[in-house]
Amino acid sequence: MISYQTILSFLILSVLLISCNSKEEQTSTYSTQPNIVIIYLDDLGYGDVSAYGATEIQTPNIDRLASEGVMFTDGHASSATCTPSRYALLTGVYPWRNKDAKILPGTAPLIIDTAQITIPKMLKEQGYYTGVVGKWHLGLGTGHVNWNEHVSPGPNEIGFDYSYIMAATQDRVPTVYLENGLVDGLDPNDPIEIDYQKNFEGEPTGLDNPELTTMEWHHGHNNSIVNGIPRIGFMKGAEKAKWSDINMADHFLEKAQNYVKQHKNEPFFLYYALQQPHVPRTPNPRFVGKTDLGPRGDVIVEADWCIGEFMKTLEEEGILENTLIIFSSDNGPVLNDGYYDDAVERIGDHDQNGGLRGGKYSLFEAGTRVPFITYWKGKIEPIKSDALVCQLDILASLAKLTGVEVSSTDSQDLLDVLTGTSTKGREELVLEASTRTAFRKENWLMIPPYNGPAVAAHVNIELGNSPELQLYDLSSDLGQQKNLAKDNPEKLNEMIRDYKEIVGAQNLEVEELELK
Ligand code: NG6
Ligand code: CA
Q: In what side-by-side order are the strands of the sheet with 129-135?
């Protein structure tokens, strides 16, 4: 006789099987738990990679990702500067929704809410081991940080099992690494002190002691001197813990490689955030002179080499075919970003913008349109894709890949686009530069009027600001030379309406934008 319990357990089991089956159907095209690696560069421009047209810099390892993966020609960072782009990448939320998502000092508190969904948190819940190696720049702690103690909250509190980071940028103090919240190599007898307002008594600065510097500051960057390089912010102590600038690339690479070796037997996520080619540009002597462009070109070649070595590790460990790689940059390029390092003087025939207008900090295309590649050996068919994609969409796309339900208003599931089976990207996108936003719809880009400076003087980059509304047709005018706002009021009004619908509630100025 079949007992009541047996019938009940049979019923429960079939329900479970049905739910397993339907999950399998949803994601059957892919292995649902591949390793996932995001390789993220800092200030790499659309034209800085040979696959994207550079002739004066050769980047064979990035080129290989591009030629064997999906190479996006209309891929965007969410913002034209670092912190907001990284915020959007990890959280899938537009950075202009968070007033704190602006370029941060090294002492800024963590700007990601520890209750918020993030890529690492989502993947961790799916059984992934999650890690970050490299540049952080999303703040640490809750206000006043004592760098001699465990620093938290930080990456480990927003979903990373492992973190090995530089807190902010290479040009900002603290110039030490943190491993899981602790300053690496700190001698308790030589404590570390950080201040962004005032110097520590008797400590030299770039401003007062130029004779102690080996790199000359151009604007900003004249506070504490570390390794001959004047930085932003003041720092004292921690002599043994200070990083070596010329070894930073090798150091992060080794950490990333070790991470892969240690976690190759479980699904892992790695956010490998390289520091190049952000200032100060400090190629290891092995790379000095590899290009004719000076340090900026040389560190791009160095970064490309690191990526090649990292790929070799995946291959040697036998996991390349089970690893999805997403490659991109946090914002567009800049030449002189605060130091005299020959980037301007030796630019020669190189076009870091790849023909686009603007650059880092700009609402014009070169601010956010960056190299963007997905690579998955044996799974992704090589294709050049002109779909509009944004780093904001990686969260929802990885959710789809790994079978998680996320409800996100900003991040769109573009998994098919990212894996090259569809070229139907986003229809619209809000782009950001500092406190300003612009609106993209299909091939059209609208920049609302802004009264700020047209050019950022020190870096010599057009910001996209104009008292006039601007409307560009990127399908025929990628260089943004012809403002069609007056010629095409119909399109302009359609754009204003859609833009207000997304941004208006958040921003009074946008809400008050009038139709033409
Ligand atoms: C700016 C710095 C610039 C760079 C940038 C952050 C000055 C004058 N300029 O404030 O050198 O550090 O911040 O770059 O200090 S980002 O890529 O991290 O956004
Ligand atoms: Ca950057």
A: 182-183, 177-179, 162-166, 129-135, 268-273, 35-41, 323-329, 372-375, 70-72, 383-385
The yes-or-no verdict on residue 514 having pLDDT over 80 is yes
Same domain, 342 and 458: no
- Quote the pLDDT of residue 243: 98
pLDDT band at 30 (very low <50, low <70, confident <90, very high): low
Of 360, 395, 423, the one marking the end of a domain is 423
Relative orientation angle of helices 248-263 and 295-316, to the nearest 10 degrees: 20
Nearest to 332 by CA among 305, 299, 363: 363
- Asked if residue 156 is part of any domain, the answer here is yes
Q: Calculate Rg over the CA atoms of the chain.
A: 23
pLDDT of 324 above 80: yes
Question: For residue 346, what are the contacts with CB-CB under 8 A and spacing of at least 6?
Answer: 292, 293, 294, 297
> Which residue of 170, 171, 361, 460 sits with most ligand 1 atoms within 8 Å of its CB, as the best mutation to test the pocket?
171
Tell me, what's the pLDDT at 468?
96
Tell how far the Cα of 169 is from the centroid of ligand 2, in angstroms. 9
The closest-lying atom of ligand 1 relative to the alpha carbon of residue 168 is 18
Residue 474 lies in a domain: yes
Classify residue 203: in a domain, yes or no. no
Instruction: Indicate the average pLDDT of the chain.
Output: 94
Q: Considering the chain, what percentage of its residues have pLDDT values greater than 70? A: 94
Q: Are residues 68 and 144 in the same domain?
A: yes
pLDDT by residue (tens digit) across 117-167? 999 999 999 999 999 999 999 999 999 999 999 999 999 999 999 999 999
Tell me: pLDDT of 16 over 60: no
Report pTM: 0.94
- Ligand 1 atom at minimal distance to the Cα of residue 279: 11
Do both 159 and 176 map to the same domain? Answer: yes
* pLDDT > 90 in the chain, percent: 91
CATH of the domain at 473: 3.30.1120.10
Query: Strand pairing partners for 375?
Result: 325
Any idea what the CATH number is for the domain that residue 311 is in? 3.40.720.10
Same domain, 113 and 245: yes
Residues 366 and 449 in one domain: no
Gap from CA of 145 to ligand 1 centroid (Å):
21
> Each residue of 423-447: pLDDT tens digit?
999 999 999 999 899 999 999 999 9
* CB neighbour class for 233 (10 Å; exposed up to 12, middle 13-18, buried from 19): buried
Residues 112 and 72 in one domain: yes
105 C-alpha to center of ligand 1: Å? 9
Phi, psi of 250 (to 5 degrees): -65, -40
Residue 392, domain member (yes or no):
yes
Domain extent at residue 269: 33-192+237-423
Neighbours of ion ligand 2 (CB under 5 A): 42-43, 82, 330-331
